[in-house]
Structures
1.
Amino acid sequence: MPELPEVETVKNGLAPVMEGYVFDRVQLNRADLRFPFGDDFISRVQGQKLERLSRRAKFMMAELSSGDRLFMHLGMSGKFTIDPAAFEKHDHVIFEMSSGNRVVYNDTRRFGFMELIKPGEPSRLDHLGPEPLSNELSAPVLRAALKGKKNKIKAALLDQRIIAGLGNIYVCEALYRAKLSPTRASGKLTVADTELLVRHIKDVISDAIKAGGSSLKDFANTDGELGYFQHSFDVYGRENEPCNICETSIHRIVQTGRSTFYCKACQR
DNA sequence: AGAGCTACCTGAAGGC
DNA sequence: TGCCTTCAGGTAGCTC
């Protein structure tokens, strides 16, 4: 279920027990998540030092001392726990770090994956669009990326090549804040629309990261579980509840197979 | 080429 | 109680 803010929070929670430490032992409880781990996964990770842990879009990236990069994606249901008290169903990967901590990856639906990439090798990150919080995302950049597109703005914002890291929740929330209907043609946004949208995308993402950090308190709850925290959403999951601005009932429609929540009165 | 559909997988919730 | 359907915050790969 994680989008960019959740992945950022997980990365910040894992860094203190992983960054600068060696993978003393790697345990795989099955041969694959979404993709097979590969026969050499354990031998390429075990004994390596994790030099740096970072995030790009919804991916976490661990740079190993060998030069390999370990990409980790949480899919829909992936979560990490540090030093869990007991073994849980769907605990698929266990990293024993030289920090003395056990880092456990649990993923019910197994849409997540881990993948090792050699230096210079192509990866799934190669075609990602700009990070929402970076200066690379600006109104002119978004406008250029949307130029000539025939789809709806909701679908365009979920396209990781346009902006990297937005998911269903934060696209709904950003469109609400920008007062733009999710059914608008993406290629026809005005300059003013695009400026508003970019500003609210950045705001909603940075608000969520702040909320994650503060509500998780040192980025881990009492069970050491990372990746879930409570948000208050204006529209997401609020079908038939009143709009916080005008009290009109929040509407739910399905676009490209996913739920979209919006206020028909406020969003035009 | 681009847009949209389906697949992948498990579990929770709701209707009957 | 159980059975069935629908839904879930992800991306990849197929079809048209």
Note: The first strand of chain A starts at residue 23 and ends at 28.
2.
Amino acid sequence: MKLKDDKKYARIFGAVLKLVTKKGLAGMTMGDISKEAGIATGTLYVYFDNKDALINALFAACRENSVMVSFRGYDAQQPFKPGFRSIWMNILRYRLHNFEEFIFQEQCYHSPYITAATREKARQLAEPLYALIARGQKEQLIKNLEPDILVAFIIGAMNELVKQIHYTGSTLTKTRMNTTFDLCWDAIKA
Amino acid sequence: MKLKDDKKYARIFGAVLKLVTKKGLAGMTMGDISKEAGIATGTLYVYFDNKDALINALFAACRENSVMVSFRGYDAQQPFKPGFRSIWMNILRYRLHNFEEFIFQEQCYHSPYITAATREKARQLAEPLYALIARGQKEQLIKNLEPDILVAFIIGAMNELVKQIHYTGSTLTKTRMNTTFDLCWDAIKA
Amino acid sequence: MKLKDDKKYARIFGAVLKLVTKKGLAGMTMGDISKEAGIATGTLYVYFDNKDALINALFAACRENSVMVSFRGYDAQQPFKPGFRSIWMNILRYRLHNFEEFIFQEQCYHSPYITAATREKARQLAEPLYALIARGQKEQLIKNLEPDILVAFIIGAMNELVKQIHYTGSTLTKTRMNTTFDLCWDAIKA
Amino acid sequence: MKLKDDKKYARIFGAVLKLVTKKGLAGMTMGDISKEAGIATGTLYVYFDNKDALINALFAACRENSVMVSFRGYDAQQPFKPGFRSIWMNILRYRLHNFEEFIFQEQCYHSPYITAATREKARQLAEPLYALIARGQKEQLIKNLEPDILVAFIIGAMNELVKQIHYTGSTLTKTRMNTTFDLCWDAIKA
DNA sequence: GATGAATGAGATTTCATTCAT
DNA sequence: TATGAATGAAATCTCATTCAT
């Protein structure tokens, strides 16, 4: 008697991510997923109770992953701007390199699959970002607007940039990354 | 003799927009739409060949509408910044006041309902915005980056702001609109 | 106030006949018929109570027409064989020149559209043919088998010949008509 | 693990054949078929892509079956006439005993369900019959007409006979079979 | 646990018929 | 009478989920 197979979770998640950019969340059936993952439909139900649970689990995983990556290498001791910059770059790189995860999360956010609980949990994961903004404001380096507005601005701009870059297929040189960061920085700096 | 009723197009479109915020694009059936519109299911097929066609038509209509509104009152003779500002405000107001249309368009963009042709047509409608950016660059008022990047930045930031404002239910005072515009302007100004 | 238009009956019947070879009886909708006839769907219901009535009416018309033509020029005074021959030729020519009517009747015969009453009426129209066969048998020119069998044989063979000729697109010369008649005659002659 | 069930194909085909004589090809729904076959509607789509595919598959199966049976017991070494006779009898018996299959094929032939490919494949299966006719002509036992004409004549006559016999409910004694064969033979013999 | 056939509720679409003009 | 939009019942087909192996 075999135990649940961790590799299979990965295969299933991978399949969903691959499909979401092609078919969207709406047009993706359990049959599609199982086929893409190379397993039987029934097997999906060994690993997840139902479609909702599957989507929610992947959403949570992506979210956690994305936050972890964002703050990688961040040192609260260093001055604000370079710290903020490295986080900004982390997020940008993450979304570009994990474009499918990024799109998946976007699609989920306004879908009926995601429960209120999952949504709330996702929001909490953004806390460190709010804290960072607060620090910048305290140090009078960042405009003194509501943090919600600032975060929305920063994230919204970045999201669209990522799509732009991905869909036009343009390579992102260091210089270009710098200039786009400057756009953001000029917007929010005090 | 009964003729095809223009009001019915409006009723159908209205129904879809009402439903999309409640159920999402995925969870919206033709039955839901017809019921919401107060007509028989079969009647939907008098006006549209199928669900895809219906969604595409509404998408195109929203897109066109949104562009038309954006440039309302724009006078190319006036100096750049106030012109740009009025357009930016138009877009913001439009998305806030027609939040359902805005969400609908976002949901559509990565869905399998929208055809490549519709997507391309949507892109073309953004041309005036690109032209405006070009003018700003020519007058050396705006940073000399690729217009794609600048547009993505402006639009992305605004989209997220709109959602932020809508979901938190905060009222948008004139002062707040001004400060958010300043965020944008500071980002892109030369 | 206009009266029912005789030309319209013809247009409707013509449309059905044109469609039956293309789409078959099964795949033919009232919409198809009205479009092909160049009238509105609703108008069909001015002329016929419903689809069944329409099909039955056309079936009856075809049947009557086909019988009328079969015995055209037949003179009961002339000797049997030439009389039988001319009738046989009449039937063959009719089916070839009115191939659509012929196919339509075949399709109807085993369809749920045709009522038992219509079917029975159709059978009665074949009476003269039975009478003819009886005469041939009385004159000991034709095999003394049950008339049903003989008629089935003659008609069945001819029907298949007609299709053969029509679909291969071969032209039917006088000589070929004669040889095919001889096939039939050799079969049934005493 | 459950595997696709060959018996289920048979059940489905059986259901269609049972229904076609009752309701005709037109009036037969997928719901009717599944009910008659004692399975769920959805299950039909496990076995066939759609209604067309189902009808085409059954048509092909009937055709193949009918040809196989026709030449059962045929020995090319024996003289022509008894060989031809045994095949003729095979075909007649097959159509009588599998009347539903026979009617189904007839209904299909001019229906929109059957694709050109299926039609062509059906034609090819008739080749052995053409070869047989050719042999008879070579041995100068059969009239020297185009084989198409002869086959059409033989088959057409038989088809109508079969219907005649079936619908009148008359039992087919050996003597009657012989006399009807003689009709056919007298027609085509040199 | 793994499989994929089986299920049936529900989605999309069709179409004979009606109805307002 | 003529029109063709409107209807809704019924047809086809899909798909999340279950179940037998």
Note: The domain at 50-188 of chain D is CATH 1.10.357.10 (Tetracycline Repressor; domain 2).
